[in-house]
Prior knowledge:
Elements: H1 2-17, E1 25-33, E2 56-57, H2 86-90, E3 101-111, E4 116-120, E5 142-151, E6 157-163, E7 165-170, E8 173-177, E9 180-181, E10 185-190, E11 201-210, E12 217-222, E13 227-228, H3 231-240
Antiparallel strand pairs: 1-3, 1-5, 2-9, 3-4, 4-12, 5-11, 5-13, 6-10, 6-12, 7-8, 7-11
Amino acid sequence: MKKLLTFLGIFFVVSIAISPAKADLNLPVTFRDFHGQGWSGGDGYNAHPDFESVIATDPGIVLSELGVDGKPVYAGTSGNPTTHGEEYFDMWYNDTPNYNMSLNSSLGFVWDGSNYVYSSNSFFPLDGQLLGNDGRSHNFHFTMELHSSFTYMPGQVFSFTGDDDVWVFINDELVIDLGGVHGAQSASVNLDTLGLTTGENYAFDLFFAERHTTASNFFATTNIELAPVPVPGAVLLGLLGLSAAGIKLRKHA
């Protein structure tokens, strides 16, 4: 019995040694920086009316399906008080002269043994960069877009808590809508409810906006092994109606 227990102990240790933990995820993102209302500087960039404006929970700002360019499509009406029309909204995730500056960067998710996690109650990645802090302690006026892909397996879940706007699209369909200028809000999606096919590859797209003082939170937890997809590549493939490694980047293209 003693020999058996010794053997099992050695086997257990060796098993751990040859079963490495999953690697952390480092996903490409694009940030865009804006000036909020009240900005009166002389740097040649205009204040954007959607930033540092109305505070309100504001679902329904975007359509339920991504556009062919891989960006959210504006659907706002008079019932969406935190936005000021399609022209201004389209600037959020597109480079626009005299309104925003952009920066390609990355977002790191740490594997905690059961999930990939990004956690920050002080999410200010552009402090002192691009258009600056508008005279504040942090840069509160920016957007972020993240494009990735994954292989669907039963049991996958994505959860988010944060502020301000967050939209998550899976297979081009809106699955989380936390639109508006508000305190930290939470939402979760169980991929088993989406009618996906096991073993098939799908697109995962996340869009974030920080539009008002005084806080910025970003907490994401998932057991989905997301793969990096650079923004330009995802858009180009979608417009051409192509796929890479069988990834359904734009299902309607």
